[in-house]
Specification:
alpha/beta, 3-stranded parallel β-sheet, two-stranded antiparallel ribbon, 6 helices, 31% helix, globular
């Protein structure tokens, strides 16, 4: 006897579309931009291939499965994944003298690391900080907002790569998106 779940097999595109819908819904609830700029139904389309299928420049894919890979740096909770992305971008741009427009980065989160891309509304409504033991260093209580999203540097911050408080040392997801990093959830 066949299992009823076998009557509608999942294919890769269907699975990715489901994940995209989940990401877009979660971002839409927070009133922020989506994790990427392609609506469901356009995956595999020329726009998606153009975004991810570049032949020029340097490409990198980063991934993380869990939110627990976080550390406190100067009273700011940082996740190791955005820190690695920031370091990769800076190494190529400043050590290897690669133009920023030649650096193409895709970040894929899954499992609890998806929380990195969820908006504040979801963090508060579902008490994600409490559930995943993410403590807000400013309150000492479980986080009720996404501590990993916001830029750590004010608009017009220093562009000196040697300034540790400048824009090139900002590992906030918002800042990395401004540098062209695409986050997939």
């Amino acid at each position: 006897m066949a299992d009823s779940r076998d009557s509608q097999p999942w294919n890769r595109r269907g699975f990715l579309s489901l994940g995209a819908v989940s990401a877009l819904v979660s971002w839409g609830l927070a009133g922020r931009a989506s994790a990427h700029n392609l609506p469901p139904g356009q995956f595999g389309a020329p726009a998606y291939d153009k975004a991810l299928g570049r032949n020029e420049g340097y490409r990198a894919v980063f991934q993380s499965p869990n939110i627990e890979s976080s550390t406190l740096i100067e009273n700011q909770l940082e996740h190791l994944l955005p820190l690695q992305v920031k370091n990769w971008l800076n190494a190529f741009q400043f050590s290897y003298k690669v133009r920023p427009d030649e650096l193409h980065v895709v970040v894929a989160t899954y499992a609890s690391a998806n929380l990195l891309t969820y908006g504040d509304v979801l963090w508060k409504q579902y008490r994600l900080g409490e559930k995943y033991n993410v403590i807000d260093p400013t309150t000492g209580a479980p986080a009720v907002r996404n501590l990993f999203w916001p830029s750590r540097v004010a608009a017009g911050g220093s562009t000196d790569p040697d300034n540790p408080k400048g824009v090139y040392h900002d590992a906030g997801i918002e800042a990395l998106q401004k540098r062209g990093v695409m986050f997939l959830t």
